[in-house]
Amino acid sequence: MLDRIPIPNPFGWEGLSTFSLLMMLAFLVGSYLLPRELTRRKLEPAHSDWLIFLGILGTLIGAKIFFIFEIWDQIFIDVPGYDGKFTYPLTHFDGFPGHPGLWSSLFSGGGLVFFGGLLFGLLFITLYFKYFKLDTGSYIDAIAPSMSIGYAIGRLGCFVSGDGCYGFATDAQIPFFVFNFHGAHPSGVPVWNTPVMESIMAFGYFFYFQYYARFQNFKKWSLAAQFFMIHGLARLLIEFLRVNKAVIPFTTPPQLVNIPDASGNPTFLTGYYWHGFSQSQYISIALILAGAYFFIKGRLWEKEAKTT
């Protein structure tokens, strides 16, 4: 993993963030594809710059807000000797000693939850459509391929930077699907490579949208509904392999340990980690159900009659 590309400078700056570079690449690819798809659909490509900008803005704001929700119980805790479970983190930038702070986490360079970015990005661009009285369904359908490849590239950024989007420990030896994670132990612990798995799936449905679905003349909103269902299902499944906190635990999660196993390698988890649906899984289920509802209700598998 390479978190940063070192660049000599007199200011003590650690260098370029590899995650930021790949996230920027994701938006650049989207900014290349989107205006061409809008033109092909006889929509207004001039809106693409604003849609990309609002997508970036919504992604950064929403991803940070949802990250705070994810670590809420680590920020607002009862610490002996400190008064105000809620007031202290609000009035101290770094929060309680030894715990993440509300403001330091909110304004840090890491800690992004994709679904927060997706939902806020969609909210911002939908408000843009409403303000300019644009055909929301047609524009959202046009965005589906760009969202897919943007997510695929962004997940590669998670892997390259080693930001922690990994799976639980495994003895499987599968190229690309397993890698040695060094965060828990210096010698590395083999874990499921969930960022790359998810990226492969996202590239898969990008090719589906880019080279097949968008040419099928499906009814309006069809590609949007399909994206919600496909992406929601992919994320729902991958979360069963990821190390992620359950919103409502069904069982007690295994503890992080570094005791050597029978082969001499340090164990990372004592067993299968999934212990209840995570925040991302609940959102995934909601996306699947919403997409399926509109897909079935609107009979969105049907195609519009071609006009000459």
Automatic annotation (TrEMBL):
Pathway connected to this protein: Protein modification; lipoprotein biosynthesis (diacylglyceryl transfer)
Chain sites annotated for binding a 1,2-diacyl-sn-glycero-3-phospho-(1'-sn-glycerol): R155
Single GO molecular function: phosphatidylglycerol-prolipoprotein diacylglyceryl transferase activity
Membrane-spanning ranges: 16-34, 50-72, 106-129, 149-169, 189-209, 221-238, 279-296
One term under GO cellular component: plasma membrane
One GO BP: lipoprotein biosynthetic process
EC number, UniProt record: 2.5.1.145
Subcellular location(s) per record: Cell membrane
Topology in membrane: Multi-pass membrane protein
Alphabetically ordered keywords of this record: Cell membrane, Lipoprotein, Membrane, Transferase, Transmembrane, Transmembrane helix
InterPro entries: Lgt
Coiled-coil regions listed: none
Family: Belongs to the Lgt family.
Described purpose of this protein according to its UniProt entry: Catalyzes the transfer of the diacylglyceryl group from phosphatidylglycerol to the sulfhydryl group of the N-terminal cysteine of a prolipoprotein, the first step in the formation of mature lipoproteins.
Protein name: Phosphatidylglycerol--prolipoprotein diacylglyceryl transferase
Species of provenance: Leptospira ognonensis
